[in-house]
Structure formats: C-alpha cells, structure tokens
Specification:
This protein is mainly α and about 400 residues long. It is built from 18 helices and no strands. It is globular, with a radius of gyration of 21 Å. The two termini are about 35 Å apart.
Length: about 400
C-alpha cells in the first residue's frame, strides 16, 4: 500500500507538470493574455527549470553538458551570423524585428536547456509512474474534448468552436496527436479501436481537418497497415464524410484540394508559407531571413496577396502556416537540411514503432509517438517553434539519445 501510494503521488505530481506544458501556452491565449504560445511555453520552461534545479540538482549535475552546449553554441552562432550577414553586410533584408530576434534567442535558449533537463530527468522516472501519469493526462484531454463536443464556452471566448483550454480545435489536435498515437498502441485492441472511432467522430463533428490527419496517422501506426490500405481507408473515410451532409463534404473538400485558386484561408495559409519560403531563398538569400524573421524579412507571394485581398489583412505570416517552410525561410539551406533530417527520423520512428512490443518501456514508446506526431506541425498545421508538440518532440529526441547512451554504457 505504501509503495502504491508513493507511485500514485509521484504520478500525480508528474502529470501536473506535464499538463503545465501542454495547457498553459494555449490557455493564456484563451484568457486573451497572450497572442501566441511563446510566452506560456517560456514561462512553463522557467518554472520547470527552477523546480528541477532545486529538487534534482545533484542528479542533473551528473549529465555531461559539453556536447549539448556545443550544439547550442553552434545554433546561436549561426543565428547571429545570419543577423550580421543579411542585415549589415549583404543588406538583403531592409526590415528586421530586433525585438522578436532577441526575445526568440532568450526563449529558445531557455526552452532548449529545459528540454535537456526534462529528458535527462526522465531517465530516472519509473515506467509505472510515467504510465499512470500519461493516463491522468489522457483523461484530462478526453474531458477537454467532451466539453468541445458539447460546445460549452466556459471562458466566454465567443469563438465559433470553443475548445475549453485551447483557443481552437487545431491547437488541441496538435497537442493531442502523440497521445492518440501512444494510447492507440498500448491499449488493448478493443479500447484502441474505440479511441480511434471517438477521435474520428470528434474530427467530423467539430469539422477539424487537423484532427482527421491525427486519426489517419494513428490508424496507420496502430493497425500496422500498409500505405496502400491507408489510401483505400482514406477513400472510404471521405465517402463516409459525404454521408454526413453537404456542409461536411464542402468543409473537407475545400481543405483537401491545395490550389492557389482556392478561397479557403486554411489552404491559402499553408500555401503561403511554402511560397514565401521558396521566394526568400530564390530572390533574397540562401542563408534565410534569420531567426524569428519569417513574415518580417521574408518575401511575399501571390498567396499572401490573395489573403489580404479576401480579408483585408495578412494572416499567419510569422508562423509560416507549418514548421517546415518556417525553418526553410528562416534558416535557408540549413533549414532544408533540418526538414530532410526530420523526414529521415520520421521514417525510422514509424518503422521502429510498428515493430515494438506494446509492453515495452512506455517512455520510449511515447518518445517515438511524439516524433511521429510532430509531422503535423512540420507539414500540415504549425504554430512556430514555441509549441507544446515541438517541445515534446525535442524532449523525446534527447531522451532517446540519453537512453541509448546509458544502455550502451551498461551493456
């Protein structure tokens, strides 16, 4: 009893810290205290960094920081090099937001170090504690999804699709993606199928294309089906959507067809990010516009013009629509390399997770699910670097690196 109590207590504390990361960034936006995830994630990082430093200081001192800080130094050096090259030497970019640049440098450094801290701390976390904590977090996310299904606007946001602690359904879908994949893998087949049906129903009822992608990826991974079967399943799925009525069919049809002639803002925002990134590399500099300068020092294409024509303002210029074009537009050739590298580890993670036993180390399973889930941020719907899903992705990458090193050392 005493041991069970301790494990449960640790699981509750761990889950509260976890919820802090995935809820605070969006909840502050719901309360209209911030306009992006950045402040909430940086604040969460500061608090977690402080707590770990106080209570796990001796353990964290055992980590070899040399390679980590060398990598951080290289990234920061490249950012400063871009700043000097583009804006002082080549003068390719006439406008630069120095506030975004230096605030981004501070935020990136703090969140990066915090991700390393959490990843190394996870090495010492009992697998049973992690599993219990993940169930607590999963239960919270289900409750949040039920509130959104009932369209209960507790915080009087006035939004068309209130999603409780999340400003919009897409933000919720990005956060929930690794959890859906994770639980569809570790739960018994009956519960796994029930979860997938619930996710599909939520996406169709709320009408959210991002969650549809989450469902399809989870289905592909959990059922271990071939890509051809996934395509067939997608065709059947679209047919089912059509049965729900013309409005549902129109909603998804507008988002599936990626055409510059589209009047759908979601499609135009996605195309805008890629167009602006490519134009920046082609017309301005192969080094990119610079860190946090997407939408400031990047070129604007026809998609941006069309968005402005439709609604009178430029929309989602800073986040690039998704993470991949933002990386390419800001970091140039290095950003292209980062996107290619992600595609490589995505394929490796899919192959690994499809062959892994569902009773294996739960933290390792979740880490692979986070790597797979952030695919949506990269290519479908992104909110920039400072998002909970990207945060969990970085933690997972470092955890797997540390775990491999320790396993090798002990072997």
């Amino acid at each position: 009893m005493d041991l069970s109590y301790k494990i449960n207590k640790k699981a509750i504390v761990f889950s509260l810290g976890w919820l802090f990361i995935i809820v605070m960034p969006s909840f502050l936006m719901v309360l209209k205290l911030t306009s992006s995830f950045s402040f909430g994630l940086i604040l969460s990082s500061f608090l977690i960094f402080s707590i770990l430093s106080i209570f796990k200081f001796n353990y964290l001192l055992t980590l070899n920081y040399s390679k980590i800080f060398l990598f951080l130094f290289f990234v920061l050096f490249y950012m400063l090099f871009q700043y000097l090259l583009n804006n002082l030497i080549l003068q390719n970019f006439k406008i630069i937001d120095t506030g975004r640049f230096y605030a981004g440098i501070f935020g990136f450094s703090l969140t990066f170090i915090c991700c390393v801290y959490i990843a190394y701390y996870l090495i010492s976390v009992n697998d049973n504690v992690f599993y219990r904590a993940s169930k607590i977090v999963g239960s919270f996310l289900i409750i949040n999804s039920v509130f959104s299904l009932l369209k209960i606007d507790i915080f009087n946001t006035g939004l068309a699709k209130p999603t409780l602690f999340y400003q919009e359904p897409s933000h919720f879908a990005l956060v929930v993606a690794p959890f859906v994949i994770y639980f569809s893998l570790i739960l018994k087949r009956t519960y796994s199928l029930f979860l997938l049906v619930f996710v599909a129903f939520w996406a169709l009822y709320i009408q959210n294309a991002t969650m549809i992608i989450v469902f399809l990826i989870a289905l592909w991974i959990s059922l271990r089906i071939r890509l051809l079967n996934l395509i067939i399943g997608l065709t059947i799925f679209i047919s089912l959507v059509a049965l729900l009525g013309p409005s549902s069919l129109t909603y998804f049809k507008e988002r599936i067809i990626l055409s510059p002639d589209s009047d759908n803002l979601s499609v135009l925002v996605l195309l805008q990010g890629w167009e602006n990134a490519i134009l920046t590399l082609k017309d301005n500099s192969f080094f990119g516009a610079g860190f946090q300068q997407f939408g400031v020092g990047t070129a604007l294409g026809s998609a941006s013009d069309k968005i402005h024509e439709l609604i009178g303002i430029y929309l989602n210029l800073y986040d690039g629509g998704s993470l991949a074009p933002k990386l390419i537009g800001e970091f140039g050739i290095l950003g292209v390399g980062a996107v290619i590298y992600y595609c490589f580890i995505f394929i490796l993670s899919v192959n690994k997770i499809k062959s892994i036993d569902r009773n294996s180390n739960r933290i390792i399973i979740f880490s692979y699910c986070s790597i797979i889930g952030v695919f949506i941020d990269f290519f479908i719907r992104g909110t920039g670097y400072f998002s909970p899903s990207v945060y969990m992705f970085i933690i997972s990458m470092f955890y797997l690196k540390f775990k491999k090193s320790i396993t090798f050392f002990r072997g």
